[in-house]
TrEMBL record:
This is Maleylpyruvate isomerase family mycothiol-dependent enzyme. Residues 149-249 form the MDMPI C-terminal domain. PANTHER family: CONSERVED PROTEIN (PTHR40758:SF1). Pfam families: MDMPI_C (PF07398), MDMPI_N (PF11716). It comes from Streptomyces castrisilvae. Residues 15-137 form the Mycothiol-dependent maleylpyruvate isomerase metal-binding domain. GO terms for molecular function: isomerase activity. InterPro entries: DinB/YfiT-like, Maleyloyr_isom, MDMPI_C-term_domain, MDMPI_metal-binding. The lineage of its organism: Bacteria, Bacillati, Actinomycetota, Actinomycetes, Kitasatosporales. Keywords: Isomerase.
Length: 258
């Protein structure tokens, strides 16, 4: 990752957290998050704040192994009211972005994934916030929009995570092997925003391309991203499923980790 891309991700961590703060601040913090039903809106916000701090601690300390969860505060020490939560979210995002900028994208640090550099964490935390901002907006019943660049990048990253998990032998991935099956994502509002995903005997492969597949998911790019992250049901009237809907359902069920 180059320095410019890394800097953009750092900016997005702060900007998206600002949108999250605005969404959460006027909402019922005790409301259940429909897309993460084990959490209230307050707990969702705390999860995001803690994730930012955890990544920031990894980068700040140049950790060579996972940072223990107890080293990162799970919630604001000033209480769980809206003002304290708002300030806590802002502080966590700013601190993590600062640590990432200071480190630069090539700094070697621990990660759970395919890349052990700070650049992995700038992207991961920005895109983590993309998805959880959608959770918050759904809970607060306010509109959610995402830039085409970030929506597409979120799909790209999720496909990388799926391929990585399969390569690591994740048992949920076994049913996603088998030659001759494929999925196609086709954004109807952004030129060239298409993905062809093939389920081969050796694992999942994908590329940005148009092509025939066993099942196609069509709709606005943000909605494709939400379906792919299981934040919007594939039978929503905002998207269209053509072909083998059961294959798309299988994909969504087997990529529900994380």
């Amino acid at each position: 990752m180059d320095l410019r891309a890394h800097g953009r991700y750092c900016d997005e961590i702060v900007r998206l957290t600002g949108e999250l703060r605005a969404t959460v601040k006027g909402a019922d913090l005790d409301a259940t998050v429909p897309t993460c039903p084990d959490w209230t809106l307050r707990e969702l916000a705390q999860h995001v704040g803690r994730a930012h701090r955890w990544a920031g601690e990894i980068v700040r300390t140049r950790a060579t192994e996972a940072v223990a969860p107890e080293k990162v505060p799970a919630h604001t020490p000033e209480g769980d009211g809206p003002d304290a939560l708002d300030a806590w979210l802002a502080d966590g995002a700013a601190g993590t972005a600062a640590a990432l900028r200071e480190a630069g994208p090539e700094a070697e640090v621990w990660s759970w994934a395919w890349e052990r550099r700070a650049g992995f964490w700038s992207r991961r935390m920005a895109l983590e916030t993309v998805v959880h901002l959608a959770d918050a907006a759904l809970t607060a019943k306010v509109p959610y929009t995402m830039s085409p660049e970030l929506a597409a990048d979120t799909i790209d990253e999720w496909l990388q995570i799926v391929a990585f998990a399969q390569a690591q032998g994740d048992p949920e991935m076994a049913e996603l092997r088998g030659a001759g099956r494929s999925l196609h994502l086709h954004a109807t509002d952004v030129p060239d925003a298409e993905w062809l995903i093939e389920l081969g005997e050796d694992g999942v492969t994908w590329r940005r391309a148009h092509g025939k597949a066993n099942v196609a998911l069509r709709g606005p790019l943000t909605d494709l991203m939400l379906v792919f992250n299981r934040r919007l049901a594939p039978d929503s009237d905002r998207v269209e499923v053509l072909g083998d809907a059961a294959l798309l359902d299988l994909w969504l069920a087997r990529t529900s980790f994380g």
